[in-house]
Amino acid sequence: MPPKKRAAKAGANKLVPDQERKKYNDYYYFYRRGEPERRRNKVKLASQPLNLRLHHGVVPDETFPWRTNEGLQRYDEYYTWLAEQNDQMQIDQKESWDSNDNESEESESEDSDDEEKKEQAETEKWETARGLTKDMYEKGAGLHFCKILGAGGMGIICVFVSYDENQTPTFWTVKRDIGGYDEVAKERETTRTFLRAPHIVQVFHPYKEKHLEDTDDDEPLKKRARTERSQAEVRKESRAARAGQRVASIARKAGTAARQPPPIGPTDQVEQVPKSMVMEYVARGSLYEWLEGLGKTKAGTEPDLRIPNRVLWDMMACFMKMCLAMEYPPLIFFPNVPESDPLAEDFVWNTDDRDDGNMVPELNPGPHNGYVDKPAGSSLIHFDIDTQNVLIGDFDSESREGKHRVHPTHPHFERMTDSHDGTPMFKLIDFGLARDMSVDDACRRNLKDLWGHRRCGKPGFYLPEQFTREWEAIVESPDAQQARVAGQYSWKSNLWQLALIMHIVITFRWNPTNTIHPLRDADLIYGPPNDLPLKRQRKRSYPTYGAHLLDPQYDHVPFRLRHLVARCLCEVPDDRPSFEEIRAEIQWAWDHESAEEKEAARQWSRTHFEKPPPPVIPPWKKVEQWAKQKTILRFDQYLEKYPPK
């Protein structure tokens, strides 16, 4: 063998261990069905149920229903096989329990350990809630504890209530970090970027901003406008708050505090409560809970309970506007909208001296409103968009009442044709993992952070920009190697995750996202996009993770919507549709909808998006006494031990 060929062969062999190491260490290869099954991962997840292992890609390739010409026949065979395997697993599990008593003893000890951990977590959760309530009272925030909504490893979320001058209650959601973490401060500042964006959950903002007069020029401000509150006024209000606390203390000692009404809130002292964030309260909960309840009625299979097309299109419109708000935050890119203009207003602070809750509409992108002339967007990537972080808000009739109602004679009413009278507004929360991934940002220059972002988010909702095979060929920076997918984060990354949620809503299945197949442009003249190409057919092919949405089993959903979602699930970000393309499809669907279909969808939404009753408000004096207890005690246990007189 010639020396040059021998050297080339030696060099090629030298690269093989490196490549194998990357494949084994790659956390994301289970998203890519093209690789064979790995024994190492199979052993790791062998104890999990089969359907969960399937979703994580450790089931052999030959058992997965690839997209073939047989279509639904392969699906029927696959799900029959899946049911048989699940039954066999239950039989094997029962036999193993009967034959091995030691394993049962070990499982009992593990269960006892789990119980101890649960008890410890419950104690920590209530201690955090009690500390938060105590801080609210000590700082004079005017918020009173109601209940705990949820808790996790990093923090808890509670419901608090405040009162105005007429003793009308208003509910708030308060998030606090557990232990020594202080990530909520960063999340609070990020969420404030989207102040007055209707499809983003609003964080409490005590200061009244002085905005410029309304003009046609919406260039970003070079520096933040001054607030109308001076430092002297802030100090004056702080002294008044401390004086009020002293008066309350004297009244309490005199025994007259029980007859006093609860203090008015929320006050500006909310900002002084550490490691916490006050947000608007969304009563209907998360999309995950709603889908879970709707799935129990088999809404995805029974024709009379399927989600109406209008609701699906409205949901897609809300998701597009979430992307739009994250790319063009209203207060940064459109600061000149006057406060007196209640455009798309759906959330207003209840205190009379605060009127900065007016919402800025997410205008349809296009040359007519200045989006084309805008500089590059903020490139803020959420990284954690899933069904648990999408909340179901109010209908227009619930959020625009009284003086805040927008009348049809309003001069800008035509910009609100996508009102939420028939479908509630969907809102996005949890910006704890959000990162600014613009080209000149430090996150892209820091290789450690850039590679670390591959694990931002939840398994099952990772982006192609995180798990694509291109990463295996990248040595340092994906930008330096001109990667098409790896690390190419943009607003279309947010779009991909929201399209994955639309996929779940349409299919009612948590399908694996690792099936990638070509999708050709929709051409209504030459037939469906996945037909064999004709002579005159010139269609571009997109690799997408949503091609199976075009299968006949989903024909009850409009073809244009399924094709749009499939395009949003394309692997290459440049292949995903633009704002203008998405808006055009949604507008087309609204224009071709009959009045009967719209009314039917409205009635369906009113039935299936029923608003739950408000939280039970406990006696605020008992809450205050509970917060000052030195021993850790759950609030319900405290009320049982010391009932209100």
Automatic annotation (TrEMBL):
<feature type="compositionally biased region" description="Basic and acidic residues">
    <location>
        <begin position="115"/>
        <end position="129"/>
    </location>
</feature>
<feature type="region of interest" description="Disordered">
    <location>
        <begin position="92"/>
        <end position="129"/>
    </location>
</feature>
<protein>
    <recommendedName>
        <fullName>Protein kinase domain-containing protein</fullName>
    </recommendedName>
</protein>
<dbReference type="InterPro" id="IPR011009">
    <property type="entry name" value="Kinase-like_dom_sf"/>
</dbReference>
<dbReference type="GO" id="GO:0005524">
    <property type="term" value="F:ATP binding"/>
</dbReference>
<feature type="domain" description="Protein kinase">
    <location>
        <begin position="143"/>
        <end position="595"/>
    </location>
</feature>
<feature type="region of interest" description="Disordered">
    <location>
        <begin position="211"/>
        <end position="247"/>
    </location>
</feature>
<feature type="compositionally biased region" description="Acidic residues">
    <location>
        <begin position="98"/>
        <end position="114"/>
    </location>
</feature>
<dbReference type="GO" id="GO:0004672">
    <property type="term" value="F:protein kinase activity"/>
</dbReference>
<feature type="compositionally biased region" description="Basic and acidic residues">
    <location>
        <begin position="227"/>
        <end position="240"/>
    </location>
</feature>
<dbReference type="InterPro" id="IPR000719">
    <property type="entry name" value="Prot_kinase_dom"/>
</dbReference>
<dbReference type="InterPro" id="IPR053083">
    <property type="entry name" value="TF_kinase-domain_protein"/>
</dbReference>
